[in-house]
Amino acid sequence: MTKRRKFIKDAALLSGASFLPINISYNNKRNYQKAPFKKLDTLSTNDWWNRPSNPIINLKINRKDVIAFGIYTLSNDILKLSAQMFPLFPEESRSISLQIKNNLKWKEIAKKKVNEIGWSTTFRIEKWNSKVDQEYRLVHGKNAMFYGKIRKNPIDKNKIKLAAFSCNSNKDRGGRENYIKNVNFHDPDLLFFGGDQSYDHKEHTAAWLKFGLQFRELFRNRPCITIPDDHDIGQGNLWGENGKKADPTAKKGIGDDGGYFYDPEYVKMVERSQTSHLPDPFDPTPIEQGINVYYTNLNYGEIDFAIIEDRKFKSGPRGKIPQQGPRPDHILNPNYNPEDIDLDGLQLLGERQLYFLKNWSKNNIKIKMKAVLSATSFCGAAHLHGNKKNRLHADLDSNGWPQSGRKKALKLIKKANAVHIGGDQHLASIVHHGIDDFEDGPYQFIVPALVNNYYSRWWWPLNEKPGEKSNKKLPWTGRYLDGFKNKITMHAYANPDSPSNGAGYGIIIFNKIKNQVTFECWPRFEDVSKKNSNQFKGWPLTISLD
Q1: Pick from 176, 240, 324, 433: CA 20 to 30 A from residue 269's CA?
Q2: For 437-486, what is each residue's pLDDT tens digit?
Q3: What residue ranges define each of the domains in the chain, with the CATH number in brackets?
């Protein structure tokens, strides 16, 4: 296929343009599996072919293209690979084949049935030969194929490079060509998408397909970690409270009493689509409503990544703490006592994940360095929300609250001598956490939003003065107390007044020889292939873990 033809094909898939299928009738009346939930994912379930065209993605595609993408991880010689399909017609096969290339011939190594609720399936292959690159393909029927490569485990490399992303807003439904070009130029060893891959709350499958088409040229040939955040499961904010059902009388989408608004089967579908290819969970015991968990660790390139769920067990604020503003999760009163909201019984990560991190921190077999990956920040590092007139003293959506839960988590991350990487905030930043004293905790890199033109945030201290021990690279660096009186040292931030409106991505380089981590932060529209390309002001930053 020529580059021009491929461009036209990809553009048709990303748009809502009509792209007629082959030998399939849209008016098919044969039986189909009905979704276990109502008014959710309507574009991709039930008799989906009778739905009108939609602004998210064209689902009525040529059947040769019905395999949207494959996405995989490799850890401890176990391959986990998920195949994501476009919706299938009733008479089409529900089976998909995983094949590898051996002596120039394709050999089937596994076959799985596609789950019609979300249109995905996952292969798990033990004793994978991780010492060599391996071409693979996914096959459906006679004509639909998706090709990729399972990279060998790069244990022989002195530097391991992670590309990290977050917050892929639907305010821009176009392609992500500049990201593909730039990140492929960096050629990272693996990828991390920290959540909010989708903002189409009630239509996850269509939005997830859109995300996959936007970024599949990055994860076609390298391992990729994806975790859902609040918008992925259909909520503006999420305090999961161990899976409880949210108060149906509460304001839709806020969920500040804790729990999940939407049907648990919808939540399970979202998590199945985004996390089934991750290594097996540390403890797979479901939480309330039968919702599953995915917290785990991934060992790749001698870097051990703990993947945690910082929303799922967290307590909701409404009805538990004194309200300090029009919303229970927004504190507007700068004179409140932070101790009044740090109460006994409040959870952040939950006891199960703390136990996991405790065990993970001790394991150093075949490990050179460690990092913790999660959705959001362990402090309040955004003063202005949405616009410069909207100042919040503290935001309980962040992991700066509850403070006692924050301290427990940071102590374990520090014990592991790990760094923390997250997203969600729409504000890139590097913070050195303080637990009891300044700088006695781990470093944190919050990466910018992929698209940041809809709800920006600013680091903007009220006194507009540098903190103690400012590095003077930016006006407001140094030691500060956040709105919960957590001790933080700000090293860099990328307000939306900066290039690309503060949108972009992070590159994290683990130097196994020097035991150093370098944080890079690149604006969305920068051309990194040019010698004069520039990161956001304040980056890069290299830290030592010795």
Answers
A1: 176
A2: 999 999 999 999 999 988 899 999 999 999 999 999 999 999 999 999 99
A3: 3-150 (2.60.40.380), 159-544 (3.60.21.70)
Residue that the structure tokens 């939930």 belong to: 37
| pTM strictly above 0.90 | yes
User: At a CB cut-off of 8 Å and minimum separation 6, what does 408 contact?
Assistant: 348, 349, 354
| Separation of alpha carbons 437 and 428, rounded Å | 24
- Which three-class secondary structure string do you get for 290-341? HCCCCCEEEEECCEEEEECCCCCCCCCCCCCCCCCCCCCCEECCCCCCHHHH
Q: How far is CA 379 from CA 58, 382, 401, 429, in A?
A: 40, 9, 8, 11
Token code pair at residue 468: 């103690």
| 359-409: pLDDT as tens digits | 999 988 889 999 999 999 999 999 999 999 999 999 999 999 999 999 999
Q: 291, 520, 318: which is closest to 421 by C-alpha?
A: 520
pLDDT at 20: 45
Q: Is 228 helix (H, G, I), strand (E, B) or coil?
A: coil
